[in-house]
Amino acid sequence: MPEEQQPISLNRVGEVRPTDIHEEMRRSYLDYAMSVIIGRALPDVRDGLKPVHRRVLYAMQELGLTAGRPHKKAARVVGEVLGKYHPHGDTAVYDTIVRLVQDFSMRYPLIDGQGNFGSVDGDAPAAMRYTEVRLAKIAQEMLRDIDKETVNLAPNFDDTLQEPTLLPAALPNLLVNGSSGIAVGMATNIPPHNLGETVDALLLQLEDPNVTLDRLMTVLPGPDFPTGAYIYGRSGIRDAYLTGRGLVRMRAKAFVEKGRGGRESIIVSALPYQVNKAKLIERIAELIRDRKIEGISDLRDESDREGMRIVIELKKDQLASPILNQLYKHTAMQSTFGVIMLALVDNQPKVLALKETLQHFIDHRKTIVIRRTRFDLKKAEERAHILEGYRIALDHLDAVIALIRRSRSVDDARAGLMDQFGMSRIQAQAILDLRLQRLTQLERQKIQDEYSETIAAIERYRAILASEALVCQIIKDELAALRETYGDLRRTQILEETAEIELEDMLADEEMVIPITHSGYIKRSNLNVYRSQRRGGKGMTGMATKEEDYVEHLFVATTHSYLLFFTNQGKVHWLKVHELPQLGHAAKGKPLINFLQLGAEETLTTVIPIRQFEVDRYLLMATKRGIVKKTELNAYDNPRAGGIIALTLDEGDELIAVRMTKGDDEILLGTKGGMAIRFKEDEVRPVGRGARGVKGISLEANDEVVGAEVVSQGAAVLTVTERGYGKRTDPEEYRLQSRGGKGIINIRITDRNGPGVGMMLVRPGDQIIMISQEGRITRLRVDEISLIGRATQGVRLQGLTPSDRVAAVTRLVSDEDGEEEAAAPESPPEPGGGADPLDEA
């Protein structure tokens, strides 16, 4: 080998030594690897940042680009970072800024940007000369107290400036925003989490350093991706939190929507984290073209500023469930996030479990609080020292003034103050710098007050430094304030793992009208089918019935609601709304016995739609003979095939009404004969499922209860009779009585208006649906119904033929309010709401 090609080693200037090429390559590569690991690719466990992120945030702070200040060109920030701290190319710096802006990449973006910063379709951001940036408000939590010697500073690349080696980071950034990076021989991939949940986990760890992983996962159940969607299964999350490595399966958020002609469409409203929407649509189109997925008639992207909406329209009679399963199998609609919780701990890469990650952040915050307190103590002691000099001077004011006046120079005056009054050089200089206005009585008192406050602050700082418990309490308070200021709701829902997609997961949570006939036919129809009409209208056909049949029940619920079917024999059955057949408004429906195992003499009287069985709610039941009973709601959370006992009935009695209550409401019962009674619910003590109950109202011969409601403020009592008459009455006209009395007149019953059919509470803006025995439906606003006294006959609400009678009536919330109260998507109907079905004998 020629001499000039032999490997050499330069040990010092002027000395050249031959060396083995293998040794030189090994040493150089290890130096390069450590440079990449520590200086470029991996985040620090304490602030969750890589050097380039840290330098960008610090440079923007130094430029004054904080929240509330005007945006500046991104190119200006890039130049500042390159010139002062990070000489690695403008592309690397600008790419970092872009990612810190993107709300689909960062769970809590640290930079607030104006302009085009890319999209989930993979579009490139605009050039840095077109975009503008400033720090987001939450980024200031990363830099808070950096001017109080809380972190170490190191020379920059050319040794002309100082830069922080770490940020104080009050925000647990490593977990809430995650991190990803490829180093040499290792990689990190930490998912983002919800801030509120992360703070709760930190607080648990602070309370008990030995807290179990299972306990932590009750408040931090898993990652929370900025794009929402679903996490499918929990085993991968637990593995990641336990060992630092795990596979988290993600699924797109999709639901089924009915279109024209009954065709179904799969609507994708959220994608897994880091999935490119444009490439996904291309992949689906490719599968359709290659006939690997059949049954799709159209594919389009209807996403806009309101949110993501990918429409996958299916062919007629094609079921959505198998198509969606194929999409999950063959496309990025189901993706895997490989968790590798690798971060730098004392400048060494380490794979961390969840508890270790939380503890490192807590230790970091302890260090920051202690260093900040030491800085504040030092400043307070320096100020107290000067204030003590002020006090000495004020106590000997004439002598101090005389000394200064006879001094030849500032140095003489300073020396005289130090010798005559025992002041330090700093105190003497402060006296010489004192403005004459500070010698007034008011200013003298301010100096005394400031001295007292400073001494109290010094004592507080010393107490903090002497007590780890106080340090921990400060950390808790700051974390709680962080959660209060920046916390938000979880975006990513965690689903339990199942073999296939459940139909309910795909169904839109839509409002449905559910009519049930006297002979037991049931169906569900979309609420939009029924148009609002004026008072007294003939209505539209709501359900086809046989000549001898008529609609007996009508109520509103959502497709995801549970239905509790209470029968006249005091039993309760359980069903979900989406399990019912969805048919047109004029269709007859399907026999209820196809869905419920009802006895030969068992008929339906009441249906309660709910979303979950809450522990602090009750069901209050009323029977035809005036008996009432109260039982906790969760006693009915698991009905068996054939139903379970809801209450024990006397011979000849029937269950006619069930209402949800809070335990301290007021109850109103109305009867067929036009009587009503109002009493406190606490007069009815809670009893078990099989109990009988107590007397609610004393009835005259041939009278019976037709309605039971929970009184609520701002509502009026609506009473409807068989001949289509009704009225609204102020509930204040129904005085509070003791349970078991005969009550007072609710409506005057005559041959003209007929016996009472129902009684309910309504509010201004509400709407009601009335349905007759011949299947005619009228929907009208309660504002059109007269508000009159109790002992009146009412006004006509529905035009009926001579042989027709009102069969059922139910209340709807006005369109402006959004959704019907009976169909509330997150909770059962509020006590006092009239969204439950009308119950009549």
Automatic annotation (TrEMBL):
A type II topoisomerase that negatively supercoils closed circular double-stranded (ds) DNA in an ATP-dependent manner to modulate DNA topology and maintain chromosomes in an underwound state. Negative supercoiling favors strand separation, and DNA replication, transcription, recombination and repair, all of which involve strand separation. Also able to catalyze the interconversion of other topological isomers of dsDNA rings, including catenanes and knotted rings. Type II topoisomerases break and join 2 DNA strands simultaneously in an ATP-dependent manner. One of its GO terms (molecular function) is DNA negative supercoiling activity. It comes from the Bacteria. The active site is at Y130. The gene is gyrA. A motif (GyrA-box) lies at residues 533-539. Residues 812-841 are annotated as: Disordered. It catalyses: ATP-dependent breakage, passage and rejoining of double-stranded DNA. Its EC number is 5.6.2.2. Its main location: cytoplasm. It comes from Candidatus Methylomirabilis tolerans. Belongs to the type II topoisomerase GyrA/ParC subunit family. GO terms for cellular component: chromosome; cytoplasm; DNA topoisomerase type II (double strand cut, ATP-hydrolyzing) complex. GO terms for biological process: DNA topological change; DNA-templated DNA replication. SMART domains: TOP4c. It is found in: Cytoplasm. Keywords: ATP-binding, Cytoplasm, DNA-binding, Isomerase, Nucleotide-binding, Topoisomerase. Residues 42-506 form the Topo IIA-type catalytic domain. Pfam families: DNA_gyraseA_C (PF03989), DNA_topoisoIV (PF00521). Heterotetramer, composed of two GyrA and two GyrB chains. In the heterotetramer, GyrA contains the active site tyrosine that forms a transient covalent intermediate with DNA, while GyrB binds cofactors and catalyzes ATP hydrolysis. Few gyrases are as efficient as E.coli at forming negative supercoils. Not all organisms have 2 type II topoisomerases; in organisms with a single type II topoisomerase this enzyme also has to decatenate newly replicated chromosomes. CDD domains: TOP4c. This is DNA gyrase subunit A. InterPro entries: GyrA (IPR005743), GyrA/parC_rep (IPR006691), Gyrase/topoIV_suA_C (IPR035516), Topo_IIA-like_dom_sf (IPR013760), Topo_IIA_A/C_ab (IPR013758), Topo_IIA_A_a_sf (IPR013757), Topo_IIA_dom_A (IPR002205), Type_II_DNA_Topoisomerases (IPR050220).
